[in-house]
Design brief:
By secondary structure, this protein is α/β, with parallel strands linked by helices. It contains 3 helices and 5 strands, in the order H-E-E-E-H-E-H-E. The chain has a domain at 60-129: Nucleotidyltransferase, domain 5 (2-Layer Sandwich). Keywords: Cell membrane, Membrane, Protein transport, Transmembrane, Transmembrane helix, Transport.
């Protein structure tokens, strides 16, 4: 008897379901990426104005050294005490315009400068980076 079993294995692969999944993932990531809002600092860039502004109070000066030391008006202060001092200065001006100048050393890490800028942003202090 010549009974033979015909069992040929097909080497073809159906790609249509795989492309559907890829397009669904692409649409999902495109939609979710538009919902992500970048967390950035609101910086005021220098520009020209036709009116002159009057500075009523002297801005206080924050100096950042390259090793991460902070100086408030020439006196050394820690990062935690700097936050308390900024809060105290903000309260002492009683809602008036409070401003500070930030002057880092040329080799200072950006981390320390951004730390001071974030502190100014949280307390509503106008900060100018020198």
């Amino acid at each position: 008897m010549g009974l033979r079993k015909k069992s040929k294995v097909s080497a073809e692969f159906n790609m249509s379901s795989l492309t559907d999944i890829i397009f669904l993932l692409l649409i999902f990531f495109m939609l979710t990426s538009s919902l992500v809002v970048p967390n950035a600092l609101n910086l005021k860039l220098p520009g020209r104005t036709s009116t002159k502004t009057q500075i009523t109070t002297e801005p206080f000066k924050v100096t950042v050294k390259k090793n991460g030391d902070f100086y408030l008006n020439g006196k050394r202060i820690s990062a935690l005490n700097l936050e308390g001092a900024v809060a105290k200065l903000k309260r002492s001006r009683r809602g008036g315009e409070v401003s500070m100048t930030i002057s880092p050393d040329p080799m200072t890490s950006n981390e320390f400068v951004v730390q001071v800028m974030d502190l100014a942003f949280r307390y509503g202090v106008t900060a100018v980076l020198l």
